[in-house]
TrEMBL record, chain A:
Family: Belongs to the universal ribosomal protein uS17 family.
Residue stretches in coiled coil: 89-116
Source species: Suhomyces tanzawaensis NRRL Y-17324
Gene Ontology annotations of biological process type: translation
Name of this protein: Nucleic acid-binding protein
One MF term in the entry's GO annotations: structural constituent of ribosome
InterPro entries for this protein: NA-bd_OB-fold, Ribosomal_uS17
CC annotations in GO: mitochondrial small ribosomal subunit
Automatic annotation (TrEMBL), chain B:
GO (cellular component) term, any one: mitochondrial small ribosomal subunit
Family membership noted in the UniProt record: Belongs to the universal ribosomal protein uS15 family.
Organism the protein comes from: Suhomyces tanzawaensis NRRL Y-17324
GO molecular function: structural constituent of ribosome
Gene Ontology process terms (BP): translation
Protein name: S15/NS1 RNA-binding domain-containing protein
Record carries keyword NAD: no
Keyword Ribonucleoprotein included in the entry's annotation: yes
Keywords from the UniProt entry: Ribonucleoprotein, Ribosomal protein
Length: 243, 312
């Protein structure tokens, strides 16, 4: 006689050695209400090797009785969802440890950045004062001292001339302004940019962009479609463009 | 780590770490009676009978205790606040309390410094005066800066503003891409921040029942969202709960933030919030007694095991 086979879900594991609880679900016709109803039954199943995890879907097979409630054994794990979950849990812990280190480094870096900005502005104020004093100083020796001091600060921040017409500190307020002007520039010069992209030496870069932006293969793209995709890429200020 | 253990009952090698419990000292050893060789026949028999009786008692007690423990499984972490040593929560709390880059009302310290430097320069350019005048402008600007820093210090702002900052930080840490405000991870992270802020209030104001209810609802909401995430993207789910300091059982098991929780996790200190009836008290005492007895068995078994080791 063929062995009795059932498919069920592991609902409890780890409480008893080599034993799991498997829930088998089926439909039974209820004569009183003339309708099929769901019937569930839990079996204690032998699991030699303790392989199953909660959430696995398994096939169980009848065996000669080995204890008061155990007459089935695990035959096959059909969906190893529970095992996968257990794996994800360990992976998550490892990933978290790596990320925690990165995040602490990042917060230290941002604090350092604040310190740097404050010292830079203090230095710029000193620079202003030195330049002012230099203009009023009659003594040549004192003037030389001031010049060397000024040069030291200028060198530290890569400033070419002081007082300067170029922006010395980047302001977030101006970021939107700069972005808009960049977009305008790229829109006006898109013809030139496009021509550059179509040359031989930019071919590799062009293919990279096109494959990045669409799922269709690059050689199957129509010319105007490719142009539109390139325009979209170029008008995003975060991306670099040749001109 | 897998350990190949050959158990005496089976001939097959089983790859299992749980089966290594056989190495643990069996509490049954606590019943061991050491019969001296010069004991009389009747004395020896009494001791042997005593050993059998005690063994039965020990097996019954240990099994009853196991059953009780299986029925009353504790949560692995605090179901509301999560693990105490959680990095994410600690980071957010530090940013909200310390004077770092963040100022009140969403301003940043670096931008603030740059702007005020620009303002001072503009004032100096406009005056174009003597050294004395310049110096006076500099001092007024310095005073302005100090006043603004005091006003904008994160410690001087209101609770709502601090919460807004905390929520922003949570969003930035959990977002899938820039500008993501509604993925389940972000929603759960925001709720976690809100729950922590809410619990701070609840700890100080035990009588604010409405607020307790709000926090309770948020805890349930977070559970619901994370349950969805588990169905949708299990890998992200496990990473998110690990990052929030929660565990799977806290999300999937039934939990209500009631008096029992407040008492068990000592939210308001050692206050007794649930009064047990006479019957319940008796039952609890019996369980405590059982636990004590099982601990005693284990200790005695250890001692007896050592004696047996010395003899052999």
């Amino acid at each position: 006689m063929a062995k009795l086979n059932l498919v069920g879900l592991v609902v409890s594991q780890g409480k008893m050695a080599k034993t799991v609880k498997v829930r088998v679900q089926g439909k039974v016709y209820d004569k009183r209400i003339h309708k099929e109803v769901i019937k569930r039954k839990d079996y204690l199943v032998h699991d030699e090797g303790n392989l199953c995890k909660e959430g696995d879907i398994v096939r169980i097979e009848a065996i000669p009785r080995i204890s008061a409630r155990k007459t089935f054994a695990i035959a096959e794990i059909k969906v190893n969802k529970g095992q996968q979950f257990a794996l994800y849990e360990t992976i998550a812990q490892e990933r978290l440890q790596q990320q925690e280190q990165q995040l602490t480094d990042l917060s230290i870096k941002s604090r350092q950045e604040v310190e740097n900005t404050i010292t830079k502005i203090e230095d710029l104020k000193i620079l202003d004062k030195l330049v002012n004093r230099y203009q009023r100083e009659p003594d040549a020796e004192e003037q030389n001292k001031l010049v060397s001091e000024v040069n030291r600060i200028k060198e530290k921040y890569g400033i070419k001339s002081w007082p300067s017409t170029e922006p010395i500190v980047e302001l977030e307020l101006n970021a939107a302004d700069r972005e808009i002007s960049e977009i305008e520039r790229r829109t006006a010069n898109f013809g030139a940019i496009y021509e550059k992209y179509m040359t031989k030496e930019w071919e590799e870069e062009r293919n990279r962009i096109l494959s990045l932006m669409t799922k269709t293969p690059v050689d199957q793209l129509a010319k105007n479609t490719a142009k539109n995709i390139l325009r979209k890429y170029v008008l995003d200020v975060r991306n670099e463009c040749p001109v | 780590m897998f350990q190949a253990v050959r158990l005496f009952s089976t001939a097959r090698v089983v790859a299992d770490s749980a089966a290594s419990t056989s190495a643990k000292i069996n509490p049954k050893l606590a019943a061991k009676q050491f019969i001296s060789p010069d004991a009389s026949k009747s004395k020896a028999r009494t001791l042997r009978r005593k050993e059998v009786r005690l063994k039965k008692q020990i097996i019954r007690d240990v099994n009853n205790f196991k059953k009780h423990a299986a029925r009353n499984v504790q949560f692995q972490v605090d179901p509301v606040l999560g693990a105490a040593d959680n990095g994410f929560v600690a980071r957010v709390k530090q940013e909200v309390q310390d004077q770092g880059n963040h100022l009140a009302y969403g301003y940043e310290r670096t931008e603030f410094e740059k702007l005020l430097y620009g303002a001072e320069k503009a004032a100096l350019d406009k005056a174009k005066g003597t050294e004395v005048l310049n110096e006076s402008i500099r001092t007024t600007e310095e005073r302005k800066k100090r006043a603004l820093l005091t006003i904008l210090n994160i410690r001087n702002t209101n609770a709502q503003d601090r919460k807004t900052l905390a929520i922003r930080l949570a969003k930035e840490e959990f977002q899938r891409h820039e500008g993501d405000t509604a993925s389940p991870e972000v929603q759960a992270a925001i709720l976690t921040v809100k729950i922590h802020f809410g619990m701070d209030h609840v700890k100080q104001n035990p009588k604010d029942k409405d607020h307790i209810q709000i926090v309770r609802e948020m805890v349930q909401h977070r559970q619901r969202i994370l349950k969805y995430l588990k169905r949708d993207k299990p890998e992200t789910y496990y990473f998110t709960i690990a990052k929030l300091g929660l565990t799977d059982d806290v999300i999937t098991r039934e939990f209500n933030m009631g008096r029992q929780y407040f008492q068990d996790f000592k939210v308001w200190g050692d206050k007794q919030l649930i009064k047990l009836s006479e019957k319940q008290k008796k039952k609890a005492d019996a369980v405590a007694d059982l636990q004590k007895r099982v601990a005693e068995y284990n200790e005695l078994a250890k001692k007896n095991h050592e004696i047996l080791q010395d003899e052999s």
